[in-house]
Amino acid sequence: MANQFITDPVKMRNTCYILFLFFLVGCQEERKFLIDDSYKENHTEFKKELHEEQVYYLSIVDMFKLDSASPNTFGSAEENKFRLKDSTAPGNFGAIIFEKDSLIFKAAPDIQVKTEDDSVIKEYNLLHLDHRGHSEVMRYQNYSWYVNSLEDVKLLRIMDSRNPEIDKFPGFQTYELTPDFIFEGQLTYYESPKLIEIPVSYGGTREAEFIGTVEFQYKGKTYSLDFMKGNFIMFGDKTALTETYGAGRYLEFTTSDNKTTILDFNRAYNPPCSYSSFTTCAYPPEENWLDFAVKAGEKETLVDQAN
């Protein structure tokens, strides 16, 4: 799930998914998608991937804004610039220091910090960022951390794979699977990225790049949604504030030819800000608010609150 504004998720893509849905399309004039056992099995796999992403966000236990003027030490000890709430964490993991055009992590001498490829490091440049603005993840035992670059702000996010919040989260209630909100879409790509001001969870707005638009038909009317890199859509609809997350939801799609796709709103999911206070989220631009109710995908209500 994908994008430069939120913390990195497990990317929920199934290369066979779009072909699978086309196979299910009927031959009648108004095409209808089928919710059969094969579709349900495929959707179950999607839900597993979504759960993995939610676990990822729920593992975040602290978030700090880095200071360019002094060493950003962090750990459970009182003398750190950033003190973790978890008293069982190491007293000091190390420090993150701004050095000219670099952002250097220096490990504390008494712990063995590793990168994602299991290499042990004592010093590492965290300004090798991916397309989301995320540095490589550092880790020590059940703890891990990375830097998220948001324009001029750099945030340190610290994760704990044993965070009790993971087991406490029951998941969101969802609508019943329905063929009524699965659409064939036509893709158009902009010659150059379109810049749109979008709301963000940390206040105000910021410019975001959209690379194209997808058009679809609903009840005889044509609708379009702008999308970003990774075939990522932020959208809102008439269910917001009453049944679904008020700031909007996310949706991704696949395409085999860059011309057509299937928009399956049964896969609409909530931004991580809806269940984790340690995330930063972007929300749909005004252009992506639909004037009808999309009764598909995740709701705002938690599973245990729905009973």
Concise synopsis of the structure shown:
The protein is mainly beta and 307 residues long.
Low-confidence stretches: 4-16, 22-30
What is the N-to-C succession of helices and strands?
HHEEEEEEEEEEEHEEEEEEEE
Measured by DSSP, the beta-strand proportion falls in 35-45%
Largest sheet: 5 strands, mixed
Average pLDDT metric: 89
Tally of separate helices: 3
- Order the strands across the largest sheet as they lie in space: 3-2-4-5-8
Tell me the overall shape: globular
Please indicate the count of domains: 2
Find the structural class using helix and strand composition.
Answer: mainly beta
Kindly, what is the distance between the CA atoms of the first and last residues, rounded to a whole number of angstroms? Answer: 29 Å
Radius of gyration: 21 Å
What percent of the residues sit in helical stretches (DSSP H or I)? Answer: 10-25%
Strand elements, count: 19
Describe this structure in words.
- The chain folds into 2 domains: 17-57 and 171-305, no CATH class; 60-162, Sandwich (Tumour Suppressor Smad4), CATH 2.60.200.
- The longest helix has 22 residues, at 37-58.
- The protein contains 3 helices and 19 strands.
- The chain is globular and about 65 Å long.
- The protein starts with 16 loop residues before the first helix and ends in a 5-residue tail after the last strand.
- The chain has 307 residues and is mostly beta strands.
- The protein has a 5-stranded mixed β-sheet, with no helix packed on it. A 4-stranded antiparallel β-sheet has the order 1-11-10-9. Strands 15-14-13-18 form a 4-stranded antiparallel β-sheet.
